[in-house]
Specification:
140 residues; alpha+beta
């Protein structure tokens, strides 16, 4: 378990939530943020993160967990603008598929395609599509 403070190594999600690195942000409040995954499984694939660093959900104080789930609810409602169906995923630990060790939920719109989680290359999000998605998903 981490202490919920700064990570030992640089964290791309900490950099995005602190606005030190760019991100296609669709929601932000005092403790959480949601932005587009730059290597999406499907169009509109979103990441919901706490601003406080923690590798796992259980690393966060309960109030931060609650805020994260509230934001997850808001982001799911916004994802429904793209598709009525979606997956929510949380990978905790390397063996579970976690790549960025800052807790995050994936919200993955589904468009009737076959299983998007099958191992395959994922294309980088195009800037023009990202901007269109931010326009669609960003307004409350």
């Amino acid at each position: 378990m981490s202490d919920g403070g700064a990570p030992a190594e640089p964290c791309v999600f900490c950099d995005i939530t602190a606005h030190r690195s760019p991100g296609y942000i669709v929601f932000e409040d005092a403790t959480t943020m949601a932005f587009l995954d730059i290597f999406p499984f499907t169009r509109g694939h979103l990441l919901v993160v706490p601003k406080r660093h923690g590798a796992r959900l259980t690393d966060l104080p309960f109030d931060d967990q609650t805020a994260l789930v509230r934001t997850l609810d808001e982001v799911c409602r916004r994802a429904e603008r793209l598709a009525p169906d979606y997956n929510i995923a949380l990978n905790a630990g390397a063996a579970a598929g976690q790549i960025v060790f800052h807790v995050h939920f994936h919200v993955i719109p589904r468009y009737g395609e076959s299983n998007p989680f099958v191992s395959r290359s994922r294309e980088r999000l195009r800037d023009d599509d990202a901007r269109a998605l931010v326009d669609t998903l960003g307004a409350g």
